[in-house]
Design goal:
With 146 residues, the chain is mainly α. Strands 1-2-3 form a three-stranded antiparallel sheet, covered by helices on one side. Helix 2 packs across helix 3 and helix 3 packs parallel to helix 6. It is globular, with a radius of gyration of 14 Å. The two termini are 21 Å apart. The relative contact order is 0.19. The mean pLDDT is 93. It comes from Yersinia frederiksenii. This is Cysteine desulfurase. Belongs to the SufE family.
Length: 146
């Protein structure tokens, strides 16, 4: 597996919902995002290729993918910004290990609403998050269309 990470496996959506529900203030959620960012292993320079870089994000963001032998998708990525890395960790949790059909059937940003994160994002971060979600949907579509 290219660039393994704990999101979607050891760190699940249910785990994040439980953890974030204890945080009543935005500042606490912000700190939790930074802690999540620290758990996302940095991509080696060899994987920070231009074709993996997303446009529309405040910070540089790389999003890679790999189809597993069982047809499920493995997503991996990195960003230069701590908060964006945390947002990436949340979205990886939402989509990791799902089939392309499952990725397309669900809104990867729904988890952000359940965590109480989306409404607190700046306009530029929110549009970057939307670009990240769209990148994931585009990748899933490519696997279906083959």
């Amino acid at each position: 597996m290219i660039a393994p990470h704990p999101f979607g496996h050891e760190i699940t959506a249910a785990h994040l919902i439980e953890t974030f529900s204890a945080d009543k203030q935005w500042e606490d959620r912000y700190r939790r995002l930074i802690l999540l960012a620290k758990q996302l292993p940095p991509l080696p320079a060899s994987l920070k290729q231009d074709e993996l870089e997303l446009t529309g994000c405040e910070n540089r963001v790389w999003l890679g993918h790999q189809r597993q032998p069982d047809g499920r998708l493995h997503f991996y990525g990195d960003s230069e910004g701590r908060i964006v890395r945390g947002l990436l960790a949340v979205i990886l949790t939402a989509v990791e290990g799902k089939t392309p059909q499952q990725v397309l059937a669900e809104d990867p940003l729904e988890l952000f609403d359940k965590l109480g994160l989306r409404q607190q994002l700046s306009t530029s971060r929110a549009s970057g998050l939307q670009a990240l979600a769209q990148g994931i949907k585009t990748i899933a579509t490519q696997y279906i269309e083959g």
